[in-house]
What does this fold into?
Amino acid sequence: MKQKFLITISILITLLVSACGSEEPTLSPQDQAATAVAEAWLVITQTHAALPTSTPVPPTNTPEATFTFLPTIPILATIPPAATIASGPTQDICNQVPPIEPQGVQVDVDFTNTSDGQVNLSLGMNSPNDKKECVTYSFSLGSGGGILDARVLAGCYWGYAWITGSEPSVAKTGDILLCMTDTSGTYHVLVTKETINFK
It folds into this structure.
C-alpha cells in the first residue's frame, strides 16, 4: 500500500515539474501586424454599421452583429510583442482611429497601386509620437495604377493590404518598417501584389 502511494506521488511530481517548463508562445511581426489590422477593421466595420442611414423609414432596433472570431481576441491580447517590431508599447496601443485634428507633426505620402486589383490598405504606427498619438490608417486604392495622396503622422509604419482582383492576394511590409519623418518632401509608397515598400 505504501509503495503504491509513493509511485502515485512521484508521477504527480513528474507531471507538475514538466508542466512548469513550457514557454509562452510569441507572435511573429507579420502575425502581430495581421492581428492589429483585423482589430482595426473590426472597429471600422462596427463604426460604419453604427452610422445612421438616410432612409425615411423610422429606425428600428437592430440586433447586434455576432462574430465567430471574437473569442480569440482576449487570448491574443495577453501575448507580448515581438522584439523585432518594437521594444516599447504593444501593437494594441497603436490600434487607434486617427484623430480629426492630429497634434503631432504630419508628412505627405502618396500611394501607388501596381497590383491588378482593388487595394484595402492598413498602415499602422509602430510606436507613439511625442504627443502620445499612435494610430492605424485605412486607405482604399483603385485598380489599374491607382494613386492616392495622403497626410499621415510622422513616424515608422507597418503596412498590410488585401488585394481583390482576378487573383486575390495579400501585400505587406514584412520585417521592415516604413519610417516617414522628414516633412520637407513627399514619400512615395508602392503597393504590389505581395509587398508594400518605398519606390
Remarks:
- The chain has three helices and nine strands.
- Residues 69-90 have pLDDT under 50 and may be disordered.
